[in-house]
Amino acid sequence: MKKSIFILSICLLAAKFSSAQLLPSFQFGAKAGVNLSSFSTNSSALAADNRAGYLVGAWARVGAIGFHFQPELYLTSKSVNVSDGSNINKATFTSIDVPLLFGSKIGAFGFGGRFYTGPLVSFAVNKDQSTGTALGNISRLNYKDQNLAWTAGAGLDIKKISVDLRYEYGLSKQSYGNNESTRVNLFNLTVAYSLFSF
């Protein structure tokens, strides 16, 4: 009798794990978080200090046979201070970001870890900079209207809540000053909630 109960338990666990990993699934939810922007400068006369920003938006996840596709849409704010030692350009860029992520998940019963990577397209909606007269165009970042990045990260799922940590490497170069250039790199920490799934 004990052997039969043990075998039945193993079969139920295997069926649950298989359904969680192999059968088609869909999830949709909301997410919000913080980011830390990284703008490198090639100029010895200028220094860039990273500042925290935010992001808020929605995500969807379609999965089957152990893999998933996760498109997202969110509003994000990227900030940096560019200084020549006495004057500061406080630059904040707001954009609509669209990551298209591909990944895999391990785990069952609503708990698991995810790993993913994919491209991101960013559309600038606001470019706010406070350049002083002394700095002028030397520190002004010519942030493009459309930018590309590559994203990689990992996440932890606990029932309907997900926590993600990811890195975005800017593929588009941003120009500033006299023929100087930089890339926008970000670290994102977000919390997501699954509104519905099937």
From TrEMBL:
Organism of provenance: Mucilaginibacter myungsuensis
Keywords: Signal
Domain of life: Bacteria
UniProt-listed Pfam families: OMP_b-brl_2 (PF13568)
Designated name of the protein: PorT family protein
Signal peptide: 1-20
Lineage: Bacteria, Pseudomonadati, Bacteroidota, Sphingobacteriia, Sphingobacteriales
Domain (Outer membrane protein beta-barrel) ranges: 21-173
InterPro entries with a match to the protein in the record: Beta-barrel_OMP_2
